[in-house]
């Protein structure tokens, strides 16, 4: 018999790279370890994006240009919700590294919020994928002020 869960090589396909986890084989091996599981980069990015957005003090994810493009993308039918906006991942054989671009709320401790984001993202990704998260880099791109209105592409309010 082989190890419980040994990872195999990196698998690159049209949809991006994936992590492949190989289980034990043979008649005596439990059913959940017979076979191979692959985890796409986009899956890890979605998990990280959702976990980061749940942290109090995070206003949005994504840099200025990414947020602008995301606002346009959200208006196009069938393009999704932009959960991965502001999230970049690298998935290897057994490990993952993540980069997040965030906008924080005014008045919160950026150090504390970054620590909470890092903890929540690592916990969620490791729990759901079994990959070891080696680093979570956080870039704070902006601070959202309480009196700032949400950015909209609607200019109809000026002239009617």
Task: Give your account of this protein's structure.
By secondary structure, this protein is an alpha+beta fold. Helices cover 28% and strands 32% of the residues. The strands form two sheets. Strands 1, 2, 3 and 4 form a four-stranded antiparallel beta sheet that branches. Helix 3 links the parallel strand 7 and strand 8. It is elongated and about 70 Å long. The N terminus is likely disordered.
Brief write-up:
Helices cover 28% and strands 32% of the residues. It is α+β, with helices and mostly antiparallel strands and 160 residues long.
Radius of gyration over C-alpha positions, nearest whole angstrom: 19 Å
Q: How would a crystallographer describe the biggest sheet?
A: 4 strands, antiparallel
Q: Give the percentage of residues in beta strands.
A: 25-35%
Distance between the termini: 74 Å
Return residue spans where pLDDT drops below 50 for at least 5 consecutive residues: 1-14
User: What is the β-strand count?
Assistant: 8
SS-based class? alpha+beta
Whole-number average pLDDT? Answer: 79
Task: Tell me, briefly, the overall form.
Answer: elongated
Helix/strand order, N-terminal first? EEEEHEHEEHE
* Count, helices: 3
Measured as a percent range, the helix fraction is 25-40%
Note the topology.
Layout: E1 5-7, E2 11-13, E3 16-23, E4 36-40, H1 41-53, E5 58-61, H2 64-75, E6 87-91, E7 95-105, H3 110-129, E8 132-144
Parallel strand pairs: 7-8
Antiparallel strand pairs: 1-3, 2-3, 3-4, 5-7, 6-7
Helix pairs in contact: 1-3
């Amino acid at each position: 018999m082989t190890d419980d869960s040994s990872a195999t090589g990196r698998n690159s396909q049209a949809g991006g790279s994936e992590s492949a986890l190989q289980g034990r084989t043979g008649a005596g091996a439990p059913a959940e370890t017979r076979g191979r599981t692959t985890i796409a980069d986009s899956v890890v990015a979605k998990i990280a994006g959702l976990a980061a957005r749940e942290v109090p003090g995070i206003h949005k994810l994504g840099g200025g240009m990414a947020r602008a493009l995301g606002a346009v993308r959200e208006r196009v039918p069938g393009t999704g919700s932009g959960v991965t906006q502001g999230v970049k991942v690298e998935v290897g054989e057994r490990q993952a590294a993540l980069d997040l671009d965030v906008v924080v709320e005014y008045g919160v401790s950026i150090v504390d919020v970054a620590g909470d984001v890092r903890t929540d993202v690592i916990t969620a990704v490791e729990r759901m994928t079994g990959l070891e998260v080696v680093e979570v880099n956080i870039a704070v791109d902006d601070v959202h002020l309480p009196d700032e209105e949400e950015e909209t592409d609607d200019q109809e309010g000026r002239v009617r």
